[in-house]
């Protein structure tokens, strides 16, 4: 991206003033170097979002922003329902409520190194991953509807997961207002055999080692110490979410004209929040959020079973679970007045600061744990939400490293099997049904996650707390 | 007249598919082959089982996305991959026969699951001597 097209607000904040049909400015949070590396499509997409009706303050892009669909991946935008604001199926994406959760294990690296192969095999055996894999749970219609309204709470009631997990999940594991009736039979059918599966692409389960602590006080609050072993799980609402996204995108696209919406890009398909279509999508999307929360809870249950086999009596406590493809009504201060806005985060993590009423008591002083996934041989980071972030981009931060290379380029550059061997030499065990899938997800195909996270920290979006490196990675 | 063919094109996060043919139906068939090509090598997929797919949409570009999404749906619920297609388009109604087989993890080593076809880089258009159908697919 040509940096001369942007106005510098600070070293880590850049502005595009409203032009043409833009209702508000666009703001990109990134270092100069990250901006220069960003695709021009990010400029086009972040400015297109600024054209949508009822957008408030600005259209934002996080430091990991890259070319997405309609919204850039790493895009954040909030809409005011009182000002004709919209909800966009494209702004949430296909993988509704995709997110990350991190678990404590109480283990140290030497304990894992001793059984690393065995643990990797056990996790790979227990957790269905990749194309064509099916979960162990088959839901009938009634159970499906219960799951779609109950989320992780439903999963725990069925014996998957622990009740004490719930307070450590965004929305306490269950979002209200889900409407299973708005979820098509096709979407439900697509989900029938997919509960408790990891999926593929950039989804993963990692056993990680804490290699660096940046903020000791917050790390202590989060229960993170140097050389701790953690488990991170990255997955979403599976086939159900994909199908809901597909169907509502089309409905919103063909009805846009009727609502008087002039779409700058078809993929930005949206409907007024208060319209029937908008409400129907909200009901269906919330059902998909519950599906994702239930799915991560079941995968956690399977993870606990795998660890129990190798470390009898072990307890895996949940640190936090947060989604990064989502739209939710939230209260935010606009010109000093609290307003309800529908905040879209597409490939962006909620990062609420200290004192926010929706955070559990334990995190009231520290701010929310912000879980940032890296690649299979670099690092993941845990950050904490800041008060400042609430004013910057509705309490949002980046969600990962962000790709810098297409899948095609990646397969030309790396061979999956060779990469798996190389990583094994470095002490990282990869398990995947697909070497090509591993090559497509090669670490070199991503931006340097450290630079992205430092930019988020420097911009004030979230504060760096700890760095984690992978020891085992299960890829779909 | 150029031969029907397919290719992938670059998208930073995902991948684009493009089919070329003598008419829209052939271009749609070729794009569907490109779709399977995202998941595995086409030559690895046997055409032993047939599935019928129908879509209805008057706008050709939207019909193309509908077709791909209908195919993605069949791939997902039947856990299948498809390697041969026959499409007919008439008055906004697309009827297709798709031949393929169940996913075999060991033999196909499927690289990635397809979530949906998008309206990004979507186009169905005619060049001097052939039809092109393309869009980006979310994986």
Characterize the structure shown:
- The complex is a heterodimer of chains A (476) and B (139).
- Chain A has 15 helices and 19 strands.
- Chain A is α+β, with helices and mostly antiparallel strands and 476 residues long.
- In chain A, the strands form four sheets. In chain A, strands 7, 8, 9, 11, 15, 16, 18 and 19 form an eight-stranded mixed sheet that branches.
- In chain A, a hairpin with a 1-residue loop joins strand 4 and strand 5.
- The mean pLDDT of chain A is 96.
- By secondary structure, chain B is of the alpha+beta class.
- Chain B has a single domain, classed as 3-Layer(bab) Sandwich (Archease, Possible Chaperone, Chain: A, domain 1), CATH 3.55.10.
- In chain B, 28% of the residues lie in helices and 40% in strands.
- Chain B contains three helices and eight strands; from the N terminus they run ββαβαββαβββ.
- The model of chain B has no long low-confidence stretch (mean pLDDT 95).
- Chains A and B meet through strand 4, helix 7, helix 9, helix 12 and helix 14 of A and helix 2 and strand 6 of B.
Shape of chain A: globular
Largest sheet of chain A: 8 strands, mixed
Helix content of chain A: 25-40%
Number of helices of chain B: 3
Q: Helicity range of the residues of chain B? A: 25-40%
In terms of quaternary structure, the protein is heterodimer
Number of helices of chain A: 15
Percent of residues in β-strands of chain B? 35-45%
Number of strands of chain B: 8
Total individual domains of chain B:
1
Whole-number count of domains of chain A = 1
Low confidence ranges of chain B: none
Q: Uncertain regions of chain A: pLDDT < 50 for 5+ in a row?
A: none
- Broad shape of chain B: globular
CATH architecture of chain B: 3-Layer(bab) Sandwich
For the largest beta-sheet of chain B, the strand count, sense and barrel status come to: 5 strands, antiparallel
CA(first)-CA(last) distance of chain A? 32 Å
Query: What is the residue-mean pLDDT of chain B, rounded to a whole number?
Result: 95
CATH architecture of chain A: Alpha-Beta Complex
């Amino acid at each position: 991206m040509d940096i001369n097209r942007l106005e510098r607000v600070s070293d880590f904040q850049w502005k595009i003033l409203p032009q043409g049909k833009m209702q508000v400015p666009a703001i990109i949070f990134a270092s100069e170097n990250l901006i220069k590396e960003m695709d021009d499509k990010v400029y086009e997409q972040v400015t297109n979002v600024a054209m949508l009706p009822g957008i408030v303050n600005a259209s934002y892009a996080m430091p990991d922003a890259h070319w997405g669909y309609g919204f850039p991946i790493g895009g954040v935008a909030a809409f005011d329902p009182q000002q004709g604001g919209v909800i966009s199926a494209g702004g949430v994406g296909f993988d509704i409520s995709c997110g990350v959760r991190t678990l404590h294990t109480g283990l140290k690296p030497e304990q894992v190194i001793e059984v690393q192969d065995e643990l990797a095999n056990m996790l790979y055996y227990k957790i269905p991953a990749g194309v064509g894999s099916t979960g162990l749970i088959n839901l009938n219609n009634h159970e499906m509807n219960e799951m779609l309204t109950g989320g992780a709470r439903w999963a725990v009631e069925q014996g998957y997961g622990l009740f004490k997990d719930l307070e450590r999940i965004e929305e306490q594991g269950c979002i209200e207002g889900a409407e299973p009736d708005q979820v098509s039979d096709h979407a439900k059918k697509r989900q029938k055999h997919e509960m408790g599966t990891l999926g593929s692409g950039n989804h993963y389960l990692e056993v990680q080692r804490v290699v660096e602590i940046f903020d000791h006080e917050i790390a202590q609050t989060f229960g993170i110490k140097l050389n701790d072993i953690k488990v991170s799980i990255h997955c979403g609402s599976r086939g159900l979410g994909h199908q809901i996204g597909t169907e509502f995108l089309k409905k919103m696209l063909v009805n846009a004209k009727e609502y008087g919406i002039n779409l700058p890009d078809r993929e930005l398909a949206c409907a007024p929040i208060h319209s029937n279509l908008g409400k129907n999508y909200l009901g269906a999307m919330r059902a998909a959020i519950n599906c994702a929360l239930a799915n991560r809870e079941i995968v956690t249950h399977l993870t606990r079973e795998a660890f129990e086999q190798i470390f009898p009596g072990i307890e895996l406590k949940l640190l936090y679970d947060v989604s990064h493809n989502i739209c939710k009504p939230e209260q935010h201060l606009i010109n000093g007045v609290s307003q309800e806005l529908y905040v879209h985060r597409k490939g962006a993590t909620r990062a609420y600061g200290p004192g926010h009423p929706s955070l559990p008591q334990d995190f009231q002083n520290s701010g929310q744990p912000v879980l940032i996934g890296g690649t299979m041989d670099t690092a993941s980071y845990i950050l904490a939400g800041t008060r400042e972030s609430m004013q910057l981009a509705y309490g949002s931060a980046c969600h990962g490293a962000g790709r810098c290379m297409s899948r095609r380029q990646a397969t030309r550059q790396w061979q999956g099997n060779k990469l798996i061997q190389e990583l094994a030499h470095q002490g990282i065990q990869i398990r995947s049904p697909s070497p090509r899938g591993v090559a497509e997800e090669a670490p070199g195909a991503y931006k340097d996650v450290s630079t992205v996270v430092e930019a988020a920290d420097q911009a004030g979006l979230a504060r760096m707390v700890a760095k984690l490196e992978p020891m085992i990675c299960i890829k779909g | 007249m150029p031969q029907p063919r397919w290719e992938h094109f670059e998208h930073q996060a995902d991948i684009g598919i493009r089919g070329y043919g003598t008419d829209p139906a052939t271009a749609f068939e070729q794009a569907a082959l490109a779709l399977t090509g995202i998941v595995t090598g086409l030559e690895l997929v046997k055409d032993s089982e047939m599935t019928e797919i129908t879509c209805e949409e008057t706008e050709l570009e939207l019909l193309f996305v509908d077709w791909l999404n209908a195919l993605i749906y069949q791939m997902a619920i039947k856990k299948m991959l498809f390697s041969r297609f026959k499409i007919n388009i008439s008055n906004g109604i697309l009827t297709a026969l798709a031949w393929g087989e169940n996913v075999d993890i060991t033999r196909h080593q499927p690289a990635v699951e397809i979530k949906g076809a998008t309206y990004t880089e979507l186009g169905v258009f005619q060049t001097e001597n052939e039809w092109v159908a393309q869009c980006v697919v979310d994986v």
